[in-house]
Specification:
Helices cover 29% and strands 30% of the residues. It is built from 11 helices and 20 strands. The chain binds zinc ion.
């Protein structure tokens, strides 16, 4: 079965990603040259997946070798799974409210046959509650009696019932998808989200990445044209078909010249988190942007002149313009100390984070928390609105340290240090991230060369 095959995953993974770091210098230059050409040919914007850029014969051969091997064992799995599939069993997709009894009655089976299968002691009861979208496949023998039935609960889980002289026997199959590593990289043109979507990255992967860097980058206001991103992640395959995206293994984001790296690591207690190359957790005490950044207007300017009072007031916070209803998150763990309404603030929430830090959220459409309540980082505390003295829907966010307003985008260097891995784990950590770290360094180098090349060719045109 696929599970047995997982023993080979280590080898598969190493081979699927090894070509780049193990390349000779000459080949590397070829790849870099191909890469630069591809960048010039495409446009210097969106994220491109590796397949478009690294089309070297060497890598191509490696990639062809892999599926062949995977296919072989996948075919075995299919044969093992589907015992009597010749001819294929007729399948029915379960409709809303449909029961097994109705499906089998319509197919011409008797109440007695239906009873025989639903009373099967091991799994029969699970046939009583079918869910819409599941699949029922069944097979009669030559005399028209039911000899086999398969309940496909999900792409990963199915139960097959086969008639024997002693009644129906059931076999449950649970498939483990096979993870394969892939990578994507590119340069931001408008926003991380737009670039990722155009490149065909799933929203889940883009959001997972934004989540990893949520403590160090304000994706709503701080991303700039020319920021670069490198991403290693797993895709999960079932029988050689992509099933869904898996986890991000490592990611790098260069924001206005500053590079942040993050690596997935499971510590000795079995907790999986993301750490920078020094083993410091990427999870910080505060989010840089306490709202769903994907909905923030990118062309929003901080208003110096107060829009309603028409006076120049010291602006003590950050304004995020976003549609009414956009979720607003607690920037960090803490306790709600005030939640209410005033004419200027509208609906507002104030959270204390320990003794030293306070965050404020104004002009909310709805409040979702009450004074006294404990909140966790990223918990939804309300939604963006335009209540109080606000011309349009936006979140006004304030960050206070020792009762003084601070710029949340520059203060993070003074914030409490994020937790780091214990020294005893660092050797294992370094070894675990070594391969991904080299990959990121190489992709970063490629990006820099590409950027350099683009700028010099622009100069030549001018
Ligand atoms: Zn404001």
């Amino acid at each position: 079965m696929l599970r047995a095959k997982n023993k080979d995953q280590g080898a598969l993974r190493r081979r699927s990603l090894s070509p780049v770091p193990q390349m000779s210098r000459g080949r590397l230059l070829l790849v870099v040259a191909a890469f630069v050409a591809a960048v010039l040919a495409v446009i210097k914007s969106q994220i491109d997946t590796n397949s478009a850029r690294f089309e070297t014969p060497q890598l191509g051969a490696q990639q062809e070798a892999l599926p062949a091997e995977a296919l072989e064992s996948a075919t075995d799995d299919v044969a093992g799974l589907s015992a009597p599939t010749d001819p294929p069993w007729p399948e029915r997709i379960v409709q809303d409210g449909e029961t097994l009894s109705r499906i089998l009655t319509q197919a011409g089976y008797s109440d007695r046959e239906i009873y025989n299968i639903t009373s099967q002691p091991q799994d029969g009861e699970s046939l009583v509650r079918l869910l819409p979208g599941q699949i029922i496949a069944f097979q009669p023998d030559d005399s028209g009696e039911l000899v086999g039935l398969r309940h496909i609960k999900s792409p990963l889980e199915s139960v097959t019932y086969l008639r024997t002289s002693a009644g129906f026997e059931s076999h449950a199959e649970i498939l483990s998808p096979e993870p394969r590593e892939t990578w994507a990289q590119g340069t931001i043109d408008t926003s991380l989200f737009v670039a990722g979507e155009k490149a065909g990255l799933s929203q889940g992967i883009i959001l997972a990445m934004a989540n990893i860097f949520g403590g160090v980058i304000d994706f709503a206001l701080d991303t700039r044209k020319g920021d670069t991103v490198q991403l290693f992640y797993e895709e999960l395959f079932l029988n050689d078909q992509k099933f869904k995206d898996g986890d991000i293994i490592a990611a790098s984001f260069t924001n206005q010249g500053e590079t942040f790296n993050a690596f997935r690591y499971t510590d000795v207690s079995g907790d999986t988190n993301y750490y920078n190359e020094d083993g410091v957790s990427m999870r910080k005490a505060f989010l840089m942007a306490p709202l769903d950044f994907t909905r923030v207007s990118s062309n929003f300017n901080l208003r110096r002149l107060h829009p309603i009072y028409k006076t120049v007031r010291p602006h003590r916070g950050t304004d995020y313009a976003a549609p009414t209803g956009t979720p607003v998150y607690a920037a960090g763990d803490g306790r709600v100390i005030r939640a209410g309404y005033t004419r200027s603030n509208g609906n507002y929430v104030v959270i204390a984070h320990g003794e030293q830090y306070v965050t404020k959220y104004l002009h909310l459409h709805k409040r979702r928390v009450k004074a006294g309540q404990r909140v966790l980082q990223s918990q939804v505390i309300g939604t963006v609105g335009s209540t109080g003295a606000a011309t349009g829907p936006h979140l006004h966010y304030e960050f206070l340290m020792d009762d003084r307003h601070r710029n949340p985008r520059t203060v993070y260097k003074y914030l409490p240090k994020a937790s780091a891995l214990p020294k005893a784990e660092m050797a294992d950590f370094r070894q675990t991230i070594d391969k991904a770290n080299k990959q990121l360094a190489l992709l970063n180098a490629n990006n820099n060369m590409a950027a350099h090349d683009l700028s010099s060719s622009n100069n030549a045109l001018n």
